[in-house]
Amino acid sequence: MSEYISEPGGQARIVARADVVVVGGGPAGTAAALAAAREGAKTVLLERFPYLGGLASGGMVLVLDDMTNGSEITVTGLCQELVERMARLGLAVFPPAADRRVAEDMWRKWSRWGVHDFHSQSKPQPITYAVAFDPDGWKRCSLDLIRERKVELRLQSWFSRTLVKDGRACGVVCETKAGREAVLAEMVIDATGDLDVAASAGAPFAHGSYILTTVFRLGGVDTEAAERFQYEHPARHAELDRACKKIMGGSWDMWWLKTPLPGVVWCNCPHMAGYDGIKVEDLTRAEVEGRRRIYALLDHLRSTPMPGFERCHVIDVAPQTGVRQTRLLEGEYVVSKEDVVERVHFADSVARGRDYYTPYRALLPRGVDNLLVAGRHYSATSQAQKISREIPPCMAMGEAAGIAATMALSSGVAPRAVEVGALQRRIRAHGGDPGDRPSANAKTLPAAAE
Description:
Strand content: 15-25%
């Protein structure tokens, strides 16, 4: 017989009871659910779309970067496990160690994969450890891992509100085709990307904004001809390239990159400023405007042929708009731009990015217990988040949050009372790098841990 909880305007059917419920099946949420289930917790993962991967797959952000500090790989653990699975299927590409260096031949070989160090001032920029992958490969391998770890997955479940009792999160309510559904849990992890769960629970947050992108892929591209033209006719290439960027109105330096699929290129553009990623009106306008620019580019490529693109066509536009920043948690510690740029090391670091560290306190909301946050909406200033929100460090946050939730549960304490040293050791035991051991270029002032 079904059980229900009372809801404003009706009831919600209880569809699951769990130790840990994770809301959001993007990179951070998938990692959180896998980590919690690996620790033996009964785990439910809720996702609004009919696939896993979030902006990695649905948003088609098809390069994993911000995971090296020089030659040191800083993001390991579940992120690397997923990369290895995709690579075995031929759906992930990354440069071997021998190619990770500064050299003109390496630049020509690898730069159109997007696996160079964007932050370096050298020319050419160094080839580094980064990963180009296929979006459906991400979905497939994520589902395999979720099934193997026996996570209860509930897709097509749109988060509605957080259940809070006596200052503690105790579950969530979702909207579904079957009506309102409730999942009750001892621990809740917000991996929504927009802080939906923590905001609903009353946790304080700031509202940031950044560019939106309607990512797309082109097929029928002769990438060898395109690269040959780029290097053999640099002046003409630069002229045509500028015209393409002008039509799109905003893009990174390389508006197209290669993918593991032959003849298919990834276009992380057009970029659009002035939109709010949690407003329906702005998301609608951005989708319409983005597609207008995409097809204007296609018309241009056909009327003014660019070598390699003469027969190109649009394969798909990402089903998710590329939203980079909306709500940002104001947690137990708010990471600043200076913390990221100066490589400040925290004694309670539980995740790493390129050469920066994420303290456990930045995953903890103020004012509500039994709730953790993992992903691009972690506790950071707007300027800090813009340079520390890449997929690999978000996955590392998710893995840390999943383990921390189970440790809190087994010890009978709130997540903020988890012994961080034990959490760091547990992350390392599973092959992750919590950042407890600072690299040589870290800033380790005593005040950094306060």
